[in-house]
Amino acid sequence: KYSADDAWDFQELQEQITKGYM
After folding, report:
1. What is the pTM assigned to this prediction?
2. Over 70: is that where the pLDDT of 8 sits?
3. Which has the higher per-residue pLDDT, 1 or 14?
4. CB burial string 1-20: b at 16+ within 10 A, e below
């Protein structure tokens, strides 16, 4: 199961990955 915090952390991770490739 995913909690709201997990989803938020995933969004943060996605942003970090995007910035990393840019």
Report:
1. 0.37
2. yes
3. 14
4. eeeeeeeeeeeeeeeeeeee
